[in-house]
Sequence to fold (214 residues):
Amino acid sequence: MPIRTNRGRAAVYRKLWGWPMRSPSHLVAVVLVVAAVVLTIGIVVPRLTGSGGDRSGAAAQTTESTTAATGGAGTSEDGGTSAGTGGSADGSATSSLPTRLPSPPQKPTSAPPADDALKVATAWGKAWVNHPTGTTTDKWLDGLRPYTTDEYLVEMSTVDPANIPATKVTGPPVPKQSYTSSLTANLPTDGGTLAITVIDTPQGWRVAFYEQVA
Fold:
């Protein structure tokens, strides 16, 4: 009896395994059933074990991390770029450059020659030619000091008065350029003509530059 039972079971198994091979329709049916079973297990088991929730949480954390790393960039409801990207609503980059060019520097305003400016130019010229033999640079600079800006007086300290050929002023100053805050005049001497520039300062008119032009 045991031998017959085992043979019966073997015959049943052969029929079950052989059934899919009897026709293509049997085989397709078996494949569909197996696929449905595997899909069901893949959906049901993660829900029962709770692993699906962990994956969703990890995905959410990944999304938040990516957003933070990009500086909070995103799009608004109307499809435009958000303020975090520094762009405009149409997606174009905004510019921080000024919209207006700086105004060009204003030109000096012409004005009639100021009498005080011409007097300072003459007094400075007379002090410039005043250098008797043996005059030191410091003593010569003392004569120029009341009519010269402090900045230009420092530059004048490099001049040796013994090298100045002129000894006297031979005529009045002739204005060449005159503005509200500056004046340039030619002053004749027995050693050539000086072009003297006088500027208006809080201390009054002062010589800021000179050069020999003839």
Remarks:
- The chain has two domains: 2-64, 115-212.
- The mean pLDDT is 76.
- The two ends are 147 Å apart (CA to CA).
